[in-house]
Amino acid sequence: MKKALLLFLLLPAIAYSQHQSKLTRIDSVLTYLHQYHMFNGTVLIGEKGKVLYKKAFGIAHPQTQQPLTTASAFNLASVSKQFYTMMAMILKEQGKLAYDDTVQKYLPAFPYNNITIRQLMNQTSGLPEYFDIAQGDMNPLDTLTNASMLELLALKNPALVFEPGTQWQYCNTNYTTLASIIEKVSGLTSQQFFAKHIAAPLKLKNSFVYHLKLKSYPPARVFGLEYDGVNYKLNDLVRFDGIVGDGNVYASAEDLYLWDQALYTKKLVKKTTFNEALTAGKLNNGKHTEYGFGWFIREPGKIVSHTGGWVGFGTEITRYIDKNQTIIVLDNSSNFRAHALVKNIWEGKPIALPKTHLITNVKVIDGTGLPAVAGGVRILNNRIWHVGKLTPFAGEAVTDGNGNVLAPGFIDNHSHHDGGLEKNPSAVAVTSQGITTIVVGQDGGSDTMDSIEHALKKIPVSVNVASYTGQASLREKVMGKNLLRKATPVEIDSMKVLLAREMEKGSLGLSTGLEYEAAFYSSRDEVVALAKVAAEKNGRYISHIRSEDLNIEEAIDEIIQIGHEAKIPVQVTHIKIAMRSKWGNSEKILRQLEMARQQGVNITADIYPYTMWNSTPRVLFPKKDFENLASAEFATRELFDPAASVMVRYTPQPAWQGKTVSEIAAINKETSAQALLRIIRESAAPEQGATIVAKSMSETDISNFMKWPYTSICSDGTMRGHPRGHGSFTRVLGKYVREEKLMSLETAIQKMTSLAAENVGIKNRGLIVPGYFADLVLFNPETVIDNATIENPTALSTGIEYVWVNGKLVYQNQKAVENYPGVLLKR
Ligand SMILES: [Zn+2]
Question: How far apart are CA 631 and CA 673, in angstroms?
């Protein structure tokens, strides 16, 4: 008996202390976030009408520095929506409208006759988002209002996104339309209606509707802010903010708690009326959504909530209605971090505190091509947060850049490094030259997006991977073994289906290797048909073109035609002239490319900085006549230098690996042409293989191509073999920029970063700007150089000091750091 009594007495104390430890934790997290400029705002936590926690952090305006209080009125953004549905409920109880009335009944100019008020509130109308409609049609000086929005809708009559009632889709136009109906039916403006029917009966002191068409605002109004690393700047209302319904209700944390508690009573509407607002909407097919009237129904009968995000404001109210507990978080710092952390602590879930890291004392070359600027970069988790003259926060992790250059991580537009990633997830070949993203699936050969994703999940890697879908791989899947022929129309259709699926999964587009036998016999129509599939999904086309020597002009013309016919951006990958008598034609070819651009074909190129290529020796026979001595003699004369070209892999005679073709000829007492025929013949069996690093290009052409403003940098590299696998990017920086002064460092960086990202369709990488992913490379521009050679192809470059991928350090001082933050990038 005594024991039971003791337990009974202890229980409330335990409950209280459980709250208390959570509240203490919440307070310390908010303090940390505020100190690191990740939170500026107010928080209120209540239970059964009693305030458990209430605190304000920071300022209401950057100029006045007026301190926030829990009575300060924040723009609720989308948390406003629940107030508009309340207004509709009040009007419904007054008999002035019915939920199943059509919108047209009240707004005759509304261009859709089959949308109801209920569908607006439930977000099942199928209306298109008004931002998209207004964006193109507004004079930059206009302020959008509900009336001008309705006019625009009537004028443009945009197609519905889906049939009303068939789907749920969050859309602000639903609520701006609802507000227009409320104003029409009540004869009051939104701010009048709100003041009279909500704020007054609930005695809300600092809650109101405010928009840009109003001349003045109450003194409690909080402004949206954004911390730029040095100061808070305004990040407040914009030209859309003459509109109401979807946002622009302002309220304080204290008032929101009064509102929350009133929703348990019949102060505003009957309980049955309000219960409907917290009931998930129903689609025409009888399925329930997870949204009521301006409320997300997280757990029916238990948890309802809504978030809001607009300009500097991030807001959230979560109501645990079965326990009568409420969390209110109002933030005006342009961060959206406090909400989830507070809620997760309250719900007993694990949290991870956001971490910042400052790189100071660097010359920032941001990837745009603009001159370097001295300063620093702050990383927040995996993104760039601040750029400029930054000083560390108290206790912040700092890397001193020692005055070196900090650039966006390099994006390798044509890579084969994926071949060795499983065994070598640190990918030092890649990171040691400053590359943070490799673009694979090149030359017509690719893995499926699913298999790449699966592989990266199984063995995480240091670098990001993006992939094209290869035409030859599609041909193999559909046509089987014999690829030395045209595909039939039925086979082309099957390939289109496969490609469309890959595009859906985030492939960058279509790649071809038309010079290789698996694709050489395909028709242009086949390529165009596939390229059109990629184009439909906003993908791109990248090609190892059909000839880089004998028929290069026709091959360039072909890729231009493919771009023209399929209406797709096209890229000549590893652009080169691999034929002695055509050396010097680079200017002519560039004129051909320029002409195509002028005619509307978005054609670009990428290049690696070597006069030698690396491939099967079979490409030395442009006519595919592999036993023809005359063709072999043509090859040794025109297509490569046998004395400077090395068999880097030769399985029939491993002893010949590392020898030049001239040396192999000498061993066999034959001509270089005969040696070439021998090499082709002996390595032709399926289990055999040969790879040659062949010297074929001229420095002048490389320089001309590299300088072209639309040429990005690639390696075409592997984990070993051709030295380009380890040295391409550092070679450009050391040899072509510093030693030969072919272009400025800023221009070279632009070609390795933002241009490279643009050329293959990678978003949010390739620039040092706030919000972009923190892929970064710190290097010494005075010493950076490649060291890889044919003899020592895996020698690491000099001068690359640090490399970060997604905010994590992966390479430092000639060594991999054991972090594997690479992700699969999807188009
Ligand atoms: Zn290639």
Answer: 8
